[in-house]
Amino acid sequence: MGSVTTQTAEDVALAHRDRVYRIALRLTADPHDAEDLTQEVFLRVFRAWDGYTPGPPGSLEAWLYRITSNVFLDSVRRRRRVRVEPLLDDLRGRLRSREAGPEDVAAGRLGADVLAALRDLRPEYRVCVVLHDCEGMTYEEIAAILDVPLGTVRSRLHRGRAALRAALPHRRPSRPGATPTPPAVPARWPRLGLHPA
After folding, report:
1. Does residue 86 surpass a pLDDT of 50?
2. Which residue has the higher pLDDT, 69 or 83?
């Protein structure tokens, strides 16, 4: 298919910015890093838009997931654990708008402890866990997005889930049928051994 106009690329950015930001926030576990990552994703989308050829339904989303994952992994490789301290909570509260943003929704749905545990995962595990367990993607879709074998996706997902279980023992029921007291996790997370409250 021929070149697509800049307006169409803008429409795509507007239609998908919240989802890309939500994924970026889950990958980075920091609102400021997520904003930077989202901006870089859409810069790459705009640069590559003329060469994008629409495919079957879902291919645009897969393309965006791939760009988001690659930008995240590239940024991790570039700065290898160099972190800027987040703003103090009271200053952050003054700077944040009154409306709940995507970071509030992600933090509320996952809980601060889960976001912190996700942040501590190796980046390649984190990408697989977020795409599968948070976004509901299949192993095959993740393998295509990351351009890795299916077995690699399964291995990374298994290791990432094991690390999350180890980091979040308080989320496990103490006995069969018991309900943990911390905030709920998404319904897609039963394989982690983490159960909703």
Report:
1. no
2. 69
Distance CA 115, CA 120 (A): 9
pLDDT recorded at residue 170: 84
How far CA 95 is from CA of 10, 87, 118, in Å, comes to 27, 10, 25
User: According to the CATH classification, is domain 6-80+101-192 in 1.10.3720.10?
Assistant: no
- The string of pLDDT tens digits covering residues 107-133 is 456 678 888 888 899 999 999 998 998
SS3 of the chain: the string is CCCCCHHHHHHHHHHHHHHHHHHHHHHHCCHHHHHHHHHHHHHHHHHHHHHCCCCCCCHHHHHHHHHHHHHHHHHHHHHCCCCCCCCCHHHHHHHCCCCCCHHHHHHHHHCHHHHHHHHHCCHHHHHHHHHHHHCCCCHHHHHHHHCCCHHHHHHHHHHHHHHHHHHCHHHCCCCCCCCCCCCCCCCCCHHHCCCCC
Task: Tell me the C-alpha distance between 99 and 120, whole Å.
Answer: 28
